[in-house]
Specification:
Layout (H helix, E strand, L loop, with lengths): L1 H6 L1 E4 L7 E4 L1 H4 L2 H15 L6 E5 L3 H12 L2 E5 L9 E8 L2 E8 L8 E9 L3 H11 L5 E9 L14 E7 L1
Parallel strand pairs: 3-4, 3-7, 7-8, 8-9
Antiparallel strand pairs: 1-2, 5-6
Helix pairs in contact: 3-4
Length: 172
């Protein structure tokens, strides 16, 4: 993971003053770093029977797509309102910079699915907590939660349900 850490760019005062944003675009553009992330994420879930990988808009789509390919599982997007074409369910939540809403297709997850719910960074946990609730309402067999980076000082894990099995490749 040291190779990955070397490629993470800190952007000061983004998206607002006082925030140090962990930018993964510098990681994603490096072929070796991208391969390492895909391999390491997949190793966590290879023997878990995963059938769907859910990615959270938008950077979560990158790791989730790679992970779904590596596992031979389907990919399901969680998006902002109005972006999905069919019938959806939604959840609203508070995040570090205001309020937001996410949606998923109503028929995206079944009771037979084993799901990995993935986003790039765990910060305050609001987005992932809302996404977890959406997926849980669809009654899959199991939900795993995955991140590339976790910002432990923001205590995002505290917003996730106690039963959530959470894994982060890198913790700051």
């Amino acid at each position: 993971m040291e190779y990955i850490k070397k490629h993470v760019r800190d952007v000061i005062d983004f998206p607002q003053k006082g925030v140090v944003f962990k930018d993964l675009t510098t990681v994603f553009k490096d072929p070796r770093a991208l391969h390492i992330i895909g391999w390491d994420l997949a190793q966590l879930y290879r023997d878990k029977g995963v059938t769907k990988v859910v990615g959270i808009e938008s950077r979560g789509f990158i790791g989730a797509s790679i992970l779904s390919f590596e596992l031979g599982a389907g990919f399901v997007p969680v998006r902002k309102p109005g972006k999905l074409p069919a019938d959806t369910i939604s959840a609203s939540y508070d995040k570090e910079y205001g309020k937001d809403t996410i949606e998923i297709h109503r028929d995206a997850i079944t009771e037979d699915d084993v799901v990995v719910l993935h986003d790039d960074v765990l910060a305050t946990g609001g987005t992932m907590a809302a996404a977890y609730d959406l997926i849980k309402s669809m009654n899959p067999k199991k939900i795993y939660v995955s991140f590339i980076i976790e910002l432990s000082a923001l205590n995002g894990r505290d917003r996730l349900p106690a039963e959530a099995e959470v894994t982060s490749l890198i913790t700051y």
